Amino acid sequence: MIEVINSVSDWKQILADKKNIKSIGFVPTMGALHKGHLSLVEKSVEENDLTVVSIFVNPTQFNDPNDLKNYPRNFDQDKNLLELHNVDYIFYPDYSEIYHDNYRYKVQELEFSKKLCGASRDGHFDGVLTVVMKLLNIIEADTAYFGEKDYQQYLLIDGMVKAFFMKTKIIPCATIRSAAGLAHSSRNELLTHKHREIAPLFAKLLRSNLSVEEIKNELNKSEFKVDYIEEIGSRRFGAVWLGKVRLIDNVELGREQNDTMS
Questions:
Q1: Does domain 178-252 correspond to CATH entry 1.10.10.10?
Q2: CATH 3.40.50.620: which residues of the chain?
Q3: 239: which strand partners?
Q4: Which residues pair with 90 in a beta bridge?
Q5: Is 37 a residue of the active site?
Q6: What are the φ and ψ backbone dihedral angles of 54, each rounded to 5 degrees?
Q7: What distance in Å separates the CA atoms of residue 96 and residue 108, rounded to the nearest whole number?
Q8: Count of CB atoms within 10 A of residue 259's CB?
Q9: pTM value?
Q10: Of the candidates 126, 139, 148, which has an alpha carbon nearest to the alpha carbon of residue 167?
């Protein structure tokens, strides 16, 4: 039976009572769980004695109040899914539990966080890094699992953990896609029926042999509003708006994509 924990003190007591647990796996989420999240959960359950999933819609990473307000939430459905996937604990705190300092203290990265998503979302990665550091310190996990769809986020979190000599090992996991190629995302639930049919073109173009400018032109012809398409190192990154929904994705360049399809 899955157990829901709301407070840091309750979780710390559980840790104290479970001294013989060899490994703890952790999957931080904002809820509205989909196949991508569940693939992380499955890997954690397979590799660890105990798995914890957090559900916390983190307000400090939203630069648009309407985006925060409209972010999909369905705790009961999420809980049922996690129970079916043999998760041991859900950490489900409120704002005051995580931000008892009211966000006076924060974690900042001063270079890569200003590029790509960070260029148009002021303060976004400050909020991401701060909440992830808090959660990693609370859970004390041996491993934490992050999807490669948010590859910039993964790199920043992995860099933070190494910079601050934290104990948790960050495990990247392949992007999970629909049969049409669209990366699973909680925000996909907010797409209209029409836009849901158009959305896979974003991933298809990112994985094409077209140039960055050609990809932008093709997207602009098909109702997308391009935030950025950029190539950094061996990856091509993209973010677009489709109606009121912002989609992100990335692909590895120079070889056939091996993203998991579903």
A1: no
A2: 3-176
A3: 228, 248
A4: 4, 53
A5: yes
A6: -95, 145
A7: 21
A8: 18
A9: 0.94
A10: 139
